[in-house]
Amino acid sequence: MKILILGGGGLIGQKLARSLAQRATLRGADITELVLADVTDPAPVDAPFTVTRTLCDIADPASVAQCIDDKTDVIYLLAAIVSAQAEEDFDLGYKINMQGTINVLERCRALKTRPVVVFTSSIAVFGGEVPQPYNDHSALNPQISYGAQKAIGELLLNDYTRRGFVDGRGFRLPTISVRPGKPNRAASGFMSSILREPLQGQPANCPVDRDFPHFYLSPRKCVENLIKGAELPQADLGKNPTMTMPGQVWTIGQMIDAMTAVAGPEPAKLITWNPQPEIDEILKGWRMDLRPQKAAGLGLEADKSFEENIRYFLEDDL
Fold first, then answer.
1. From CA 177, how far away is CA 134, in angstroms rounded?
2. Contact (Cβ atoms closer than 8 angstroms) between residue 46 and residue 57
3. Inter-axis angle of helices 219-231 and 11-23, to 10 degrees?
4. Across all residues in the chain, what is the average pLDDT?
5. Contact, 33 vs 2, CB < 8 A?
6. Lowest mean pLDDT among 14-28, 78-92, 293-307
7. Positive or negative CA dihedral for 296, 299, 300, 302?
8. Do 205 and 271 contact (CB within 8 A), yes or no?
């Protein structure tokens, strides 16, 4: 089996690659090759099979064609421009998040091999006047460009799957926390930095109050769910193969309390509480109550507590 991870240099792409290397199988078959593709050279991953690293710009159809061939069995489409950057640069957001998705799906259609395509969408597809809680049948009503681009991707994946061009399944990711490494351009980035930096003895700012609730999942559980998601029979996905990945709603205060329970009181003392006007408009639509019954019924899982998220970060990334 040949697997391609588009976005293979990113946080989730790298963790997914290492997990697949440990498993060495997917969908009941031995993995023979794993291709990590990104706009910058992905880091190497040790595996008992061939791992190829390559540059790929999904906005360029020729670049996509070089990465996807008729031997590619599973494609993880993780590559994207994240929320704040997509809001700042309208053209780039649509070039990568919309046109890039079209390029991948069109390459699959041209090959006529019907690969499995695992597409990562976002809870940013919800919002506006749609009543909460959001469930598997709630209307998509994004309130930022990133959400609109991901909603378009969902509809494309659904239609290409219906037409038999791909075996698609899409998962709306919760906010992934605690993310290791450096901050990215996501408006939700502070939801990791207020934990990641203090746990390493560094200050961090929180632009919202302690009562701000949001929908979270750890990187470890996200990767586990992406692997389970690739292995689901298409018949189990129903008429809409895109669903919300399980997560849990916690407030900022509950997250910080979880950090204190695991790591003691000192890290929380490094958090400052100053508003950030540049992300305030985005955050206004983020008080979300999501009920991902479909994915949970198919065996995907959320973290049981935010203390688990903290422990996973300490074990996996520090």
1. 21
2. no
3. 60
4. 93
5. yes
6. 78-92
7. positive
8. yes
DSSP assignments along 183-219, one per residue: --S-GGGHHHHHHHHHHTT--EE--S-TT-EEEEE-H
Lowest mean pLDDT among 75-79, 135-139, 168-172, 242-246: 135-139
Question: What are 210's two structure tokens?
Answer: 């302690």
Question: Shortest CA distance to 79 belongs to which of 173, 167, 6?
Answer: 6
Instruction: pLDDT band for 318, please (50, 70, 90 cuts).
Output: confident
Strands (E), the chain: 2-6, 25-26, 29-30, 33-38, 50-55, 74-77, 116-122, 167-173, 175-176, 204-205, 213-217, 242-244, 248-251, 271-272
Q: What's the CA gap between 222 and 160, in Å, rounded?
A: 24
Which residue is associated with the tokens 């695991």? Answer: 262
Nearest Cα residue to 175 out of 219, 139, 119: 219
Tens digits of residue pLDDT in 100-111: 999 999 999 999
Spatial distance between the Cα atoms of 11 and 21, rounded to a whole number of angstroms? 16
Q: What is the pTM of this model?
A: 0.92
Structure tokens belonging to residue 19 = 């997990």
The single residue of 76, 94, 134, 146 carrying the catalytic annotation is 146
Residue in this structure with the two tokens 């990767």, named with its chain if needed: 223
Separation CA 87–CA 137 (nearest Å): 26
| Domains of the chain as residue ranges with CATH | 2-173+218-244 (3.40.50.720), 187-214+248-289+302-316 (3.90.25.10)
Active site (annotated) includes residue 146: yes
Least confident residue range of 38-42, 46-50, 160-164, 212-216: 212-216
| Distance from C-alpha of 213 to C-alpha of 234, rounded to nearest angstrom | 34
Percentage of the chain surpassing pLDDT 70? 96
Tokens 């203390």 — which residue? 307
